[in-house]
Design goal:
26% helix, 106 residues, globular, alpha+beta
């Protein structure tokens, strides 16, 4: 989660790769969103775009997301995908990124 203040929090727990087994190990988790916070969901194609030479770990991904602080959801997605494609213009895997941003109440 990219917080409105530019900090990044990892949410959830690691589980089974979806589509690999008939009954994946799934667990619920929750977090609190504040206005301007953005949840970023992504496939491994984002973090592995530069593989095998460079694979983003949590710290590298957090640094990329911090660089998108203050942007719209579209801007966050463009920034993350642009950073991955900057590592490898023709990634070996698909890259999917979905961002959801909490808005301030009217």
């Amino acid at each position: 989660m990219l917080r409105a203040d530019g900090s990044v929090d990892e949410l959830g727990v690691h589980g089974t790769l979806l589509g690999l087994v008939e009954r994946p190990d799934l667990q619920d988790c929750s977090g609190e969103l504040h206005p301007g916070d953005t949840i970023v969901l992504y496939t491994d194609g984002l973090t592995e775009a530069g593989a095998p030479e460079q694979v983003w770990g949590p710290d590298e991904l957090a640094a990329v997301l911090r660089g998108a602080a203050g942007r719209s959801v579209h801007g966050v997605v463009e920034h993350a995908v642009g950073a991955a494609r900057g590592v490898q213009p023709q990634p070996r895997d698909d890259i999917a990124v979905v961002a959801l941003q909490a808005l301030a109440p009217e």
